[in-house]
Every structure is written in structure tokens, then in C-alpha cells.
Design brief:
Helices cover 37% and strands 16% of the residues. The protein has 8 helices and 7 strands; from the N terminus they run H-H-E-E-H-H-H-H-E-E-E-H-E-H-E. The protein has a 5-stranded mixed beta sheet. A two-stranded antiparallel ribbon has the order 1-2.
Amino acid sequence: MNGKNDNERKPHEFKNDVLTAQTKFGVIAPIIQGLFPDVTKTAYYKRISEKPLQMPNGKCAKFNYNTFEKWEQAYRKSGFDGLCPKGRSDAGIPRKLSEAAIAEIYRLKELFPRANATLIYNKLIIDGVIMEKDTSISTIQRFFRKNNLKGKSFAMVNTKDRKAFEEDSPCMMYQADTSHTIYITENGEKRKTYLIHIVDDNTRLIVGARFFYEDNAYNFQKVLKEAVSRFGLCTKLYVDHGGPYENEQLTKICIAAGIVKIHAPVRDGAAKD
């Protein structure tokens, strides 16, 4: 990284590192998860090496299949951190935070500018990025102070001006979205799953969440019904323009329940953060 240590590097450099690692993982994921359709993993790597791979910088590059095998080996040895670009000036020196952990901190702060060190620390542990026995909360707090990540200062790295909002009390606004998750095998057939979830804007509590094979309006309405049954009616529902959220039936439900449905700007998923 041009002789820079972790604390001297810019946020976008860490972001590029984690995006590069995510791109690499996207290639090897079918092998790691045992979901590749080819006879052997070498056959899989050879097949996908025939087409260029789009990298985070927007450029397309062709890789030899042996490169993909090296990515797999690096991941199995070091996890996500093994896929991050190398070339550190402090290689071989023990560090409190790995490159992957630092990149994830910046990514989370970009998504949630109001999140403090404690919330980020807990999220890193839950996601398996760090281990509680290896990294203390004070380590994250020191990193926040040293890199000016406290408060809203980090939001200045965003190119788009966003006005933060948060409801004054619980159950005033629910935010809903769908996450594309894992493939599972059922009766010999591989099927993709979707996690439809609803979060209370004020408390960030997950008030409703279920996995489905289909991401559609009917399934979302089931989750919404369960959320309302458990936590009560909200006054506003904040969603994107996906099919499960932009349909006549949901509009009628919201009108009947007195809920104001709000849609995030088109092609601006970060607006819901």
C-alpha cells in the first residue's frame, strides 16, 4: 500500500480493498459452498476464466484459472483477510486490527454514519470479522478517536449530501428490505433463499424477518402482518421500489391501516440507512 500503515491510509483505499476481496470471493464462493455445477472445481475455474472479470475499478481483466485456485487457497488459510490486496509495509508485524476488520469498520461507518464504536464492535463480532477474545472494545474506540470516526465527521467522505433522520420514538416508522441469501438443497434441488426483514427506525430492532424461496409481495405482507401483530402498527413504512413493496395490494393495506408508505429514491439504496 505504498509504504503506508493502516492509520495513514484513506477511507476509499480500505473500501477498494474490501470490494476487491468481495469480488474474489464471488468467484470462489461456489467452490467454498460446494455449489458449482461442473464435474470438478478445476473445470469450474477453467470455464469462468474464459470471460473477463469486472473489478471494483470498473475495468475488466482476464485471469488464468490457476489464479482462482490461489484465491481459494488464500481464503481457506486466512479467511476474508486473505483475499485483501497485499503489499503492506508492516508485513509480519502483529496488528490489533486486520485489514479486513479495518475495511469493514469504514464500510459500516459509511453505511451508518451515526453508529458508535460499541455498535460497530458488536457488529464485527456477530459477523465473525473479529473475535472478542482477540480484540477489545477499547481497541475499536482508540481506532475511532485516532481516525476521527466519532460523530458525523465520517459522513463527509460521502459524495452525496444526505440529511440524517431518525424517528423520535419506537414504532413510528418501519424500514423494510430484502436480502439475497444462500442456496440450499431440498429434495435434490438447489434453491435460492431470500431474507425479508423489517427494522424499527428508532430502536433498530428487527421487528419482523423470515426466509423465503420467493421475494414477492405476498411473502412481504406475511412478515409485515407478523411485525404488526408483535410490535404494533407503525405510522410510516419506508421501502424501495422493488416488486414486493410497490404494488396495489400493499398500497391498499397501508391506506386501510393508516400507514404512510414512503419509497426511497430510485437507484439509491443507501438512502434507507
